[in-house]
Amino acid sequence: MNIFSQLAALLLGLLGGALLLLALALVPYWQSLQPIEFTQWFGTNVHFIASAMKPLGFSAAGVVWLATGLAVWKKLPTRYWLIASSACAFIMLITFPAYFVSANAALAEGAMSPAEISQELVQWERVHWVRVLAAIAGCFCAVKAGYASTFRYA
């Protein structure tokens, strides 16, 4: 059982790190570009980012949900930390269909005015930070679950 919470912590840590890299490196780069240059870059490269992030996001969420289900079923002391980690994974994942699918498509098309592109990129960054914080918080909770599972409770 402990292996699933440890694997969840590992995957959520990798995901949180990758999302943090996007937030701290790519978003400032995108913001430094002229809106038209940005949409050209984004339209050309967004599928590369998505092809790396989607499998990592879904596998991290899947493992933490599996660990949570097992912990709840077996009434383990880790279940509370894993429930919190699962909630964070859900928040992180729900941002994709709720916002990023349409925003990424709109930004990649380049059909907006330069002002709209800049404004959408600011909104993209805000929602992305929600995703970053959710992944990092989920990793923290999964790590805590890993520690909780090593102690015996009376």
As for the number of domains, it is 1
Q: Helix proportion of residues, in percent?
A: over 70%
Please count the helical segments.
Answer: 4
Multimeric organization: single chain
Q: What's the total count of β strands?
A: 0
Structural shape: elongated
Estimate the strand proportion. Answer: under 5%
How would a crystallographer describe the biggest sheet?
none
Mean pLDDT: 92
Low-confidence stretches: none
Distance between the termini: 19 Å
Order of helices and strands: HHHH
Class from secondary-structure proportions: mainly alpha
Structural Rg:
18 Å
Structure description:
With 154 residues, the protein is an all-alpha fold. It has one domain (2-148). 88% of the residues lie in helices and 0% in strands. The longest helix has 39 residues, at 35-73. The radius of gyration is 18 Å and the shape is elongated. It starts with a helix and ends in a 6-residue tail after the last helix.
